[in-house]
Structures are given as structure tokens and as C-alpha cells.
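Aromatic amino acid transaminase
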Amino acid sequence: MFNSLKAQAPDKILALMGQFRADPRPEKVDLGVGVYKDADGRTPVMRAVKAAEKQLWDSETTKTYTALAGEPAFHAAMATNVLGADYPADRLSCLATVGGTGACRQGFELARMANPEATIWVSDPTWPNHLSILAFMKQDYKLYRYFDSAARTVAFDAMMEDLAAVKAGDVVLLHGCCHNPTGANLTLEQWAAVADLLEAKGAVPMIDLAYQGFGDGLEQDAAGTRLIAARLPEVIIAASCSKNFGIYRERTGCLMVLSDAASKEVTQGTLAYLNRQSYSFAPDHGARLVTMVLTDPALKADWMAELEEVRTGMLGLREQLAAELRQLSNSDRFDFIARHRGMFSRLGASPEAVEKMRVDNAIYMVGDSRLNIAGLNAKTVPLLARAIIAAGV
Ligand code: LMR
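Predicted C-alpha cells:
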């Protein structure tokens, strides 16, 4: 039967990761996959996570199964971190998931169970795996315009124009912060306008929050999500711990669903059911570390301090790259790099220019010219700036 299988197109981001590893050139620069790297190109285990792991090694006495939906302590810690200490516990259901991808997948599954007629509205562009998962699920989706590729800003009027066609019960997927792949984000006023529109339409916002703490700060990056959660009766939030806790391979994520209080019990039960049908229990190790870090004041303070170092380091690289390009291009047309937030910016280079930078300079970025700022350091920024100009961007 297996000879009937058709070859699947490889995931572009993960394929690029393999291509980079195979490149023998020592000067190569990886601006591809969304993984944080320090100035030496390492992805460190965060200090607080390491300390929690040591404590856990001493204190953990069993590895028997945990709860199907994950530990209540993990739910509470994540809800507090994402929604604030005054989150509405009586309306919130939570699910430990296999990373942020798992949270997205289970969120889509839940939406489909609740409303098989729903269309999922997705920003154009978005993280390619959103589209890939939706296509795999044979789930109807539509794109809404999001990015002004000339100005490299949010095309807000176009976005609102497209979202005006949303129907009651549709799901609108939004990036909570640090939009992937563009780096262009909604202002709080724009979040409020989106909330008004979705409320008027009776649509359900779904927020993918994968980079909380990488943009304007831990609290600031949750502000849009909190605004939506305070305004809309039903909200889906897919939060990832991969990036802000640096625990990529532990596969730790949390799906949070706000419903009316009367629907909470069935919603929570449906979430647990979705885990059981997919893989039974989500991995526990990363979720336990996150819970420890978020609930121990000393660990939390150290984690927040390190996360802030990561964030400000990326901002510094953005400033440096924009300044180099200002000088080399004798213009301010690359200043958007300093205004974007998070790990990514979409440069606006053609696929040919992206390819030229890979061939000539061993600089790897995703084909749509998304670059991972964290892949740079003070020494490679000038190399990238020169390569961008040489490629005619
Ligand atoms: C990315 O966009 O590079 C990250 O979210 C990693 C991934 O899984 O694609």
C-alpha cells in the first residue's frame, strides 16, 4: 500500500535548517528557523530552567501519568502569565499541548468540533505551518490582507476591509505579538478596533502567542491578547513555551479557551478528549519546569531578567542593522527593521536575491526573505548589510 503514497513537499523552514547544517563554509550565517541564538551562535538552556531542572531531579519521585489535560498548576501559571493574575478562572479551560504547534492544532480541532461550518481566517502572510495544518485537516480557511509589503507595516485598512466579510462563528487567527513572518504588529488601538469588529460579527478570535517577551516586554506582548480576552465572550489562545523559556525540544505549549461559565465543564472535557485522541498525555517535563519557574519568585525574577537580555539584545541588533543599511543605502528605506518587533522581519527581497545571498555570502534566510534577527551578532550585521545591498534589495 505504501507505493500509493505521494511525496510531501518538505517544510521550507525545516528544510532550510538541514541545508544550513550541510553547508561547509565556516562563515555561514543562519537567519532561518525561529530559534534564539546568543552572540556565539548558541541556544542556551536558560538559567532558571536549568535551576528548576536540578530541583526537579532531586524532588521528583514518580513519572506516572499526570492529568490528561495537564496539571492544574501549569494551567494556572500559564493563564496568569498570559492573561494576568485576574484571569476569569470560571470561564477558562486549559490544555497542556505538544508545543505551540500542538496548541494550534488542538485549537483548530476544537473550533471544528464546535462549528464544522466555520471558516478560519488567517493573515496573509502567516507562519506557513498554520496553512499546512489547515490544509491537512481539510479545514476551510481564507486569507485576510495583513502586510503592506512596500511600507513593511501592517496594512490595517485592508485587513479590516477583508475581516468585514467574517461570518458569525468564524474563527480569526491573530498573532498575539511578534508577527511571524513579517515583524509588523498591531498597535493597541488597532487591537481594540479588531475586538470591536469581531464582537459585532460574532466571530471567535484565536490568538497564536509564540513569542511573548521577545517584542516589547513580557506584559506588553500580552496586551493585545488581554484586550481581546477582556472584550470577547469566546476566545482561543495557543501559547508556546518553546521560545520564551528556550525549551524547544521539550514540546511545551498550552491551549486556553474562554467560554461562558456554563460551557466550561464541557469545553474542558472536550480539550482532554482531544489530547486522548491524539497522543493521550502531552509531555510533562517542560510544563513542570515552566510551572516551577513561574511560581517560584527567585526563579521567575531570574527568568524575566534573562528574557529581557534576550529581547534587548535583539533590539540592539535591529538598531545596528538599520543603521548600517542607512549608511550603505544612503536612505532610510530599511528603518522598518528597527521598528519591527520579535525575532523576525520580512526584508522584502525577491527569491532571487535571497538565493544570491545564500550562494555568495552563505547567509540563510527563508525564501520569502524572513530573517531571524537572533541569528546575527555585532560582527555579522555588517556582512548582512553589505550582502543585502549587493543583492540589489
Ligand atoms: C519558525 O517559524 O521558524 C518557528 O516557529 C519554528 C517552526 O517550527 O517553524
